[in-house]
Amino acid sequence: DTEVTQTPKHLVMGMTNKKSLKCEQHMGHRAMYWYKQKAKKPPELMFVYSYEKLSINESVPSRFSPECPNSSLLNLHLHALQPEDSALYLCASSPGTGRTEAFFGQGTRLTVV
Amino acid sequence: QKEVEQNSGPLSVPEGAIASLNCTYSDRGSQSFFWYRQYSGKSPELIMSIYSNGDKEDGRFTAQLNKASQYVSLLIRDSQPSDSATYLCAVSQGLTGGGNKLTFGTGTQLKVEL
Question: For A45, which of B42, B49, B101 is closest by C-beta distance?
Fold first, then answer.
């Protein structure tokens, strides 16, 4: 089982809204990631959590706030986004030690209006 | 210089042919290499991982790694129309705080024609 589940699949939000993206994995992986992908571009890393601690923040604006409530869950809280933040947001997980393969969820297509 | 480079394509091959996708990377200390397939509007799907020099085969897919030349390739034998997608090469960097950072190439669009 290499499943990473993301909700919602699609999200439309206004610039004054607050919303959250959710991600769940039950593979026992200890590293979880948020990536952002714009059209016709490769995914770009935003945040890394390792053993539920924030390991990397790739200089992401504070309107994006990650949270890792436990080893299976990862959230991305969104507030006061801009239209240019519209993108596919991808959650991924990897074992964290030894093997380094990362498995992606199906993504959340976010549109900011 | 881009860290991971791929030809953007499109690469067109006839059905049943071998598709050859190439990737070069700049960090000589890189240890882990991956190929992801991404259909339009979908998320990346891991299809191959390779860690040591040489070839690794899985079904119709063969990944090749040459660390001296900093070169990774993916061969797809007996290409099918369902193989039409963008193929992303990714190089992994271990992080001090744990986890890994994947750096992706821009992807090669493959079209398998009937």
Answer: B101
